[in-house]
Amino acid sequence: DARAFVRLFFSGAAEVEVDKQGRVLIPANLRTYAGLDKEVVILGVSSRVEIWAREEWERYSAGASENYEAIAEKIVDLDVDL
Question: Angle CA(68)–CA(58)–CA(44) in degrees, nearest 5?
Fold first, then answer.
């Protein structure tokens, strides 16, 4: 089950190249999936990069900010290594 999940999860991954101006073209299917239109937010999350539609990020971060302390306590209780 875990292997099937990982396979499906990463099946949407795409290898992209950086152009001479330092830009990356996100494939159309991934832009559609993520709802990327004009403005995006790029986040560094541990060893990953996340790209969000600005409106979605603002909505998410507003909700997450309200629960930040509770989430932090759960992570400490689980002894998660960040």
Answer: 70
